[in-house]
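Reviewer comment 2.1 asked that we show a complete input and output for one of the modelled complexes. We chose the biotin case, as it is the one discussed in the main text.
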Amino acid sequence: MASIDPVLLKSRLGELAGRFDVDALDECDSTSSELLRRAERGAPAGTVIVADRQRAGRGRRGRQWLSAPEDSLTFSLLWRFSGSAMRLSGLSLAVGVAVAKGLESLGAHGARLKWPNDVLLEQEGEFAKLAGILIELASDRRGTQAVIGIGLNLRAPTVELPQPAAGLDEAIRVLPDRHTLLAALLTALADVLQRFEEGGFAALQSEWQARHAWQGLPVRLIEDGVEEGPGICLGADSDGALLVETPVCIKRFLSGDVSLRRA
Ligand code: ATP
Ligand code: BTN
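Response of the prediction step:
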């Protein structure tokens, strides 16, 4: 049996329970792949798939998301937005704000945001990846649907990864149970996604900036595999574009094909 009980989760969601339709699986390939298939078959906005185990968890650009059932929370949420996909450029940043606020509401400290889709844990000036966000869009005549995939480490993965990883147990005194945790994240998402729908990323920019991991720090940029010159990271503008100050100008990056690293 899956470790999430949708009835118990609904009770934790209180008055928001009606906004979400949660399916808890023991196992699937990827909660986002499964939700994309269900969205194609007409699943309603607010559908959530949470799985204990993913056989093929995905990150950006075909990268792998690795997770062990006991040590992570992996779920995807379907949300519908009016207008075209163009309006959604800052969505992964907005979702980062929701994840950070959801964790903070439970007493977690040190969640920081890295453009465009990572939640890092800051400990004594060092940063390690706590959660990843994967946004996938599908547009139709009614607007745009987003499948929002979130992978959160409850404990740091034991497998070797190219960059440091952290667990929520390092950010909080006592790990909350899964139902409390998922309810807190969905509650924060409902609020943030509504504000994003009404005002775009501009409505959340100051909350993102306040948690920005590398504000004013030297960074390197890798665009389509090619290393760009170094610069100082200035954060995100009101469209969610990354701003980097170089010796000659301030560069603006909107594309998700850019990877950001500490210099
Ligand atoms: P970018 O800056 O381009 O986003 P990234 O390394 O953060 O680079 P993503 O595609 O955002 O890349 O995230 C996927 C990466 O996350 C994988 O390449 C892997 O290194 C790392 N990863 C996979 N599983 C975990 C995990 N459970 N915790 C932390 N990091 C992980
Ligand atoms: C990243 O850091 O690149 C994003 C990682 C997103 C991982 C989550 S886990 C739940 C959902 N299902 C997936 O296959 N990916 C996302």
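Residues 178-199 form the longest helix (22 residues). We note this here for comparison with the apo prediction described in Section 3.2.
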